Amino acid sequence: MTRQEIKRALLAKQKELGLSQVKREDIAIQKNAEVLDEIQQNADRTLALDSLTRNWETASLIAEALRKVEDGTYGRCAECDEPISEKRMAAIPWAKYCIRCQESADKSNTDSRWAEAA
Predict the structure, then answer these.
(1) Is the torsion defined by CA of 40, 44, 49, 53 positive or negative?
(2) Burial class (CB in 10 A: 0-12, 13-18, 19+), 65
(3) Distance linking the first and last C-alpha atoms of the chain
(4) Angle subtended at Cα 82 by Cα 89 and Cα 2, rounded to the nearest 5 degrees
(5) pTM to 2 decimals?
(6) Per-residue pLDDT of the chain (118 residues; tens, 9 = 90+)
(7) Contacts within 8 Å (CB) and 24+ apart, 20-24
(8) Residue 85 in contact with residue 63, Cβ under 8 Å?
(9) By three-state DSSP, how is residue 106 classified?
């Protein structure tokens, strides 16, 4: 992919994230007389907050990728500094890590979540 194609893909995803906003009423805490209604609203609020968090994290990665495009470091793993495969960059233009380092980071995150739950 050329530099312009990469920037277009990143900016398109950035715009898409801006359009998919969570509404205030989706995360508002409301008391209900019905227990099942309250449970459903809590579940809906959790999903909305998770979506908001994922969108924020992706937007941060996109902004970082755009900076890397500008400074010429785009496509290098933030952990091992090896080139990230073109196939991965085409699929996820905001990828921060190569596959090996991403798998390691995912495993570390999973292990720490299990440790917190215990």
Answers:
(1) positive
(2) buried
(3) 45
(4) 35
(5) 0.73
(6) 788 889 999 999 988 888 766 666 666 666 766 888 888 888 888 888 888 889 899 999 999 999 999 999 999 999 999 999 999 999 999 999 999 999 999 998 877 666 665 5
(7) 20/51, 20/55, 22/48, 22/49, 22/51, 22/52, 22/55
(8) no
(9) helix
Q: How far apart are CA 64 and CA 96, in angstroms?
A: 9
46, two tokens: 């959790």
Pseudo-torsion of CA 75, 66, 20, 87, nearest 10°?
-20
Q: Is 16 left (phi over 0), alpha (psi -120 to 50) or beta?
A: alpha
Residue 94 and residue 11: Cα distance in Å, rounded? 10
CA angle 89, 19, 30 (to 5 degrees): 120
User: Which tokens hold the place of 99?
Assistant: 């596959």
